[in-house]
Amino acid sequence: LKMTADSTLELENTPWLTYILENYSMYTIGPLTLMIILSILYYPAIVFFFISYSSSAFYFIYKKIANLPEDTNSEQWDKPKQVVTFVHDTIGKFLHGYEVCGLENLPEGPAVLIFYHGVPVDYYLLVLRIYRLTGRFCYSTVDHAVFTIPGLKIFLHAHRVDHPTREECVEILKEGNLLGIGPGGVREQNYGDNNYKLIWRKRKGFADVAIKAKVPIIPVFTQNIREAYRIYGNTRIMRWLYEKTRIVFFPGYGLLPVKLRTHIGQPIPYDPNITIEELVEKTKAAVESLRDRHQKIPGSIWRALKERFDWLHKYE
Length: 316
Prior knowledge:
By secondary structure, the protein is an alpha/beta fold. The chain has helices at about 15-25, 30-40, 45-65, 80-95, 120-135, 155-160, 165-175, 185-190, 205-215, 225-230, 235-245, 275-295, 300-305, and strands at about 1-5, 10, 100, 110-115, 140, 160, 180, 215-225, 230, 250-255, 260-265.
C-alpha cells in the first residue's frame, strides 16, 4: 500500500501485515498492553477494550482504504458503522440474549434518554439496537476521563460520544437527535450493588437541558445489569480513591452470560410549568418504577442465568 497525492491508498509490494504493524501500532501493541494490565485489576475492562479498540482499528483502516471524510456523521460512514453495529449486536445476543422492550416509546423527534448506570454495556447495546432498527444514532454523554484513554478518538466520534456542556446538549436536541445521559455516572456504576439504588446525588443538569430544549425524557432500565458485571467500589477506601483521583476502572468481575433486557418507559412529556427539581424527582420515580416492575431485588446471578432459558417454558 502507498498513500497517493489525493490521500487514497494503492497496493504496492509491501506486505499487508508489515504495513499494518508499522502504521497502526497504536491500535495493537499499546492497547493490548493496557488491556492486559487493566483486565488483571478490572475484569469487565476486557469488554470495554475489545469493543472500543477493535472498532477504532476497523474504522481507522476502513477510513484510509475507502478515503472517508473526517466528518463521521456523513453518509459515507454508514457502511462501516453498520458492520460494527451488526457484529457487536450479535455478540450482545450471544453473550446476554440481549433484548429491548418498549422501543415504540421512543418519539420520532428529539428526546433525552435517562438510564440506570451500571457497567454501561447495556446502554451501548441499546444505542446499537436503536441504530439498527431505526437508523438513528443516539448521542451519548460520558465522563471526561474516557477521553484521556489513547486510541479511542475515532471510535468516540463515530459513535457520537462526547462530554458536552449543557448548552451543547440543548443544541444536539434542537437538531432533532436523541441524547443519552446516566445521571448517576461513574459513582452509580462503582458504588451501586444488586439492590439497584439510584445514586444521583444532586445531579439535575439533564432536567435543565430537557426543559430548555423542550423535549420529553425517556426513562430506561436494564434488567440484571448488576448480575452481568459487578464492581467492588462501595468501600471507604474505594470511595476515597475515586473522589481524589476520578479513576474510572475499579476492581470487579463480569462477562457472566445472564439475561439482559432493556426496558424503555413511557415518555415524560415537556411541561413548561414544571421546575427543574420537580422534573428530576419525576424522572427518578419513573426509572425506579421500571426497576421495581422488572427487577427482583436483591438481584441474583443464578436467577438471572435461568432467565436466559425463559423461552423454553413457552413450549412446555
